[in-house]
Amino acid sequence: MVMAVAATVAIVVPVVLINPTHTAETYQRDIDVERVAGQAAGDAGYEPAAPELPEDWNSNFARWTAGTSDGVDYWEVGYLTPDKGFIQFTQTVEGNPTWTAQQAGEAQVSGGRSIGGVEWELLDASNGDTVLTSEVDGSTLILSGEADLAEFDVLAEAVLADVEPAPPTAEAP
């Protein structure tokens, strides 16, 4: 029996030592969101938002999700904030109240927030996440995750700058 235990330990220990450990940097990829959004635009039928954020923000995923059972196709991007928080951004032009509630994880409304001149609904999820939702120019926008509200503001303003149509320019006489 002692030999069997020793043999098992001799096999398990090298396997454990060979596997890489998970560190904060494990999830800190930097996806080219603008490039992925450009690729998704053909399927989406609109330009998915690729907000310009400060250098110390990183995106760790960007994807177009289609063919879901609820019939709502959507764009989503995950961002790591400078303070090591996480905010997921979700956008669709096919949103409805039921879908938005499902994406928000059945979070409860706790108030409102004005960011970039747009009213956002502020929700608190039972798992401690913060959720912001808004409707802008035909798009349903959802921000959710664990981060300071100031970081939500930064992302929301960047998203709005990318989603809202540019004001018309004055024509020269």
Structural account:
The chain is of the alpha+beta class and 173 residues long. The chain has a single domain, classed as 2-Layer Sandwich (Phosphorylase Kinase, domain 1). Helix content is 29%, strand content 30%. It is built from four helices and seven strands, in the order H-H-E-E-E-H-E-E-E-E-H. The protein has a seven-stranded antiparallel beta sheet. A hairpin with a 5-residue loop joins strand 2 and strand 3. The longest helix is centred in the first third of the chain and has 17 residues. The protein is elongated and about 70 Å long. The N and C termini lie far apart (95 Å).
Helix and strand layout, with pairings?
Elements: H1 2-18, H2 33-44, E1 58-65, E2 74-80, E3 86-92, H3 97-103, E4 108-115, E5 118-124, E6 130-136, E7 139-146, H4 149-163
Antiparallel strand pairs: 1-2, 2-3, 3-7, 4-5, 5-6, 6-7
Query: What's the CATH architecture?
Result: 2-Layer Sandwich
Count all strands and give the number.
7
The proportion of strand residues reads 25-35%
Count the domains: 1
Examine the coordinates and then state which fold CATH places here, giving the name of the CATH topology: Phosphorylase Kinase, domain 1
Q: SSE order, as H and E?
A: HHEEEHEEEEH
Order of adjacent strands in the largest pleated sheet: 1-2-3-7-6-5-4
Tell me, rounded to a whole number, the average pLDDT.
Answer: 86
* CA-based shape: elongated
Number of helices: 4
Largest sheet: 7 strands, antiparallel
Distance between the termini: 95 Å
CATH superfamily: MucB/RseB, C-terminal domain
Query: What is the CATH C level class, in words?
Result: Alpha Beta
Broad structural category = alpha+beta
Organism: Arthrobacter crusticola
Protein name: DUF4245 domain-containing protein
InterPro entries: DUF4245
